[in-house]
Design brief:
With about 120 residues, the chain is α+β, with helices and mostly antiparallel strands. It has one domain (about 1-119): Ribosomal protein L22/L17 (Ribosomal Protein L22, Chain A, Alpha-Beta Complex), CATH 3.90.470.10. Helices cover about 40% and strands about 35% of the residues. The protein has helices at about 1-5, 20-30, 35-45, 50-70, and strands at about 10-15, 80-85, 90-95, 100-105, 110-119. The strands form two sheets. It has a three-stranded antiparallel β-sheet. A two-stranded antiparallel ribbon has the order 3-4. The longest helix is centred in the middle third of the chain and has 21 residues, at about 50-70.
C-alpha cells in the first residue's frame, strides 16, 4: 500500500494563515499525537481561540480529505501523526517613529500542516 510507505494516509495544509507561528505552535503542541476526536475537543475548549480556530479548520480539512479518499475509513481510528507550523512570508509595514524616523511593523503569517494516520 503506497499510503503506508509515506508514513501517513492523508494530509492537509493551511497556507498564509494570518496568525503568528509562535501562537499556533502553542496550540498544536496540545494536540500532537492525539486522536482526531480528542483533538477537536481540545481545540474547542482551549483559551487561545484564534489559533485554535485556524488549526481546527485545517484538521477538519484533513478529516474531509480522509473521508473523500477512503470512504470506508473509520474516523475513530485516525490520529495526528505529524503537525507543525512554519513561517510564511511577512507583510512589512512602517509607522512613524520619533524624530521623523520610521519604525517597522511585521505582520506574521503561518503555514499549518497536518498529517493523519490510522491506528
Amino acid at each position: 500500500m503506497a499510503e503506508k510507505e509515506r508514513g501517513y494516509i492523508v494530509e492537509a495544509h493551511g497556507k498564509y494563515v494570518r496568525i503568528s507561528p509562535y501562537k499556533v505552535r502553542l496550540v498544536i503542541d496540545l494536540v500532537r499525537g492525539k486522536n482526531v476526536n480528542e483533538a477537536v475537543t481540545i481545540l474547542k475548549f482551549t483559551s487561545m481561540k484564534t489559533a485554535a480556530g485556524q488549526v481546527s479548520k485545517v484538521l477538519n480539512s484533513a478529516v474531509a480529505n480522509a473521508e473523500n479518499r477512503f470512504p470506508n475509513i473509520e474516523l475513530d481510528k485516525l490520529f495526528i501523526k505529524r503537525i507543525y507550523a512554519n513561517d510564511a512570508p511577512r507583510l512589512k509595514r512602517f509607522k512613524a517613529g520619533p524624530m521623523g524616523r520610521m519604525r517597522p511593523i511585521l505582520h506574521r503569517f503561518s503555514h499549518i500542516s497536518i498529517f493523519l494516520d490510522e491506528k
